[in-house]
Design a protein that fits this description.
- The structure is a single chain.
- Helix 3 packs across helix 6 and helix 4 crosses helix 6.
- The protein has one domain: Orthogonal Bundle (DNA polymerase, domain 1), CATH 1.10.150.250.
- By secondary structure, the chain is mostly helical.
- Helices cover about 65% and strands about 0% of the residues.
Amino acid sequence: MTTDEQLASSDVEALRRLRWSCRRGMLELDLLLEAFLKHGFVKLDARGRETFERLLDYPDTTLLQLLMGQMQSSDRDVAHVVEFIRQTARHPS
């Protein structure tokens, strides 16, 4: 089941905004973030979803370094969501 099918209809607009925020102009980020929205986002709890939204405020270079494992965040919530995104990219289900 995809994200669209699992979210309540009241969340559809929020999902559209997230999709727009995931369009970064950097192909690697676009692919990772859009795949995560499709396969992993609905598995996050409310705190994880808030953290994901905070991640989208990061500059592209910082976000890419985090997702590629070239940098680690000292924020435990961010580190957890980044690892979850990386796992989802390796094993989408």
